Amino acid sequence: MGGVSRRAFTVAALSAFTAASGASGASAAPAARDLAEPAQAPSRSAAAGMRGMWLATVANRDWPTRAGLRAAEQRAELIGHLDNAVRHGLNTVILQVRPTADALWPSAHEPWSQYLSGSQGRDPGWDPLGTAVEEAHARGLHLHAWFNPYRVATHDDPAHLVSSHPARKNPGWVVPYGGQLYYNPGLPEVRAFVQDAIMDAVAKYAVDGVHFDDYFYPYPVAGQSFDDGGTFGMFGTGFATKADWRRDNIDRLVRETAQRVKEVRPAARFGVSPFGVWRNAATDERGSDTRAGVQTYDDLYADTRKWVREGWIDYVVPQLYWNIGQDGADYAKLLPWWVEAARGSRTQLYVGEALYKSGDPAQPAAWQDPAELSRHLTLAARYPEVRGHVYFSAKDVAEDRGGAMARVAADHYTRPATAPR
């Protein structure tokens, strides 16, 4: 996924991956790969598990292919992605509907997204989210609405926002950082507004899920600090450190959003797809055997392990975007860590898969083997706690560079998909 974060990658997100993956780019060791030879037959649970894909709109990553297409062209492209999900045996599409404090539906709170018309606030002439829900359901797909909570813009000039934008009307809500604009998570009025903007969509549309990615506080940028000292002075009483206060702000967002979703649309599920490393074991003995350059607890102030253990979220999709045997962040080590985190909780565990790396010549040797992703699913099938997989992202599902998605389908998705559970 958190700009997508890993999903329409920002420089910060790419740096996080590079740091977490280690500098060597080593391919998987034979012993690790031997652990995950393709299964002889897919498990019966594979048919009923999550088979999802993210459909990213920020920076027109997946859809629309460019801003300014006619409404009929946008609709046709969207329908094409839904049809492609069905062709590949998937059962869920996670559509990014609020990429930058904007909307892919007629929102009562925020402007139309610039990624539709090319101009923020301009009506595209149709309702993308409403169409997506209707057309997904007609194809037997679940549609989860994906919201980025705090990113306002992928630039740092408020004057470039449409004049009616809430960030223009409430400049005190906004913090420039790393060349982008963010809402300040420490302000109670911001947290309430973000939830109101999200709930506008949840109330209007029969979405099957509400989804956050990995962006809470922004990924760290070297030499810069997120300017919320004044907010901490006003609202941080009782917290030993600013870090503790920041984590509490994000905890509140998650708990409150979960509650409001259940009140308005009880059947909808609320989930998060965090960066794959909560904390390294060298930092915290409860952490994973990794050497990641970013830790969600310490750097994004998101205590994702607690959300799972406490059952605040219905599902979690850690972005395990590394190969088996990867130095510093090994899929085969992170997977059982997340299994243990989810074991005994009410939170269902799905795994975020880096389909976008498959066949990319810039990636380590392991990703040049189209069987790498299939091995991930084979390894995950050993753990009953793993209830499915989500692929980043829709464009890569369609292109299937190197045939990795076809290999996954052949090895694991031979039975027709049913509704995820």
TrEMBL record:
| Record's signal peptide | 1-28
Protein name per the record: Family 10 glycosylhydrolase
Q: Name one Pfam family in it.
A: GHL10
- State whether keyword Transport applies: no
Keyword list, A-Z: Signal
* PROSITE patterns reported for this sequence: TAT
Q: Which Gene3D superfamilies match?
A: Glycosidases
Recorded source organism is Streptomyces violaceorubidus
UniProt key word DNA repair = no
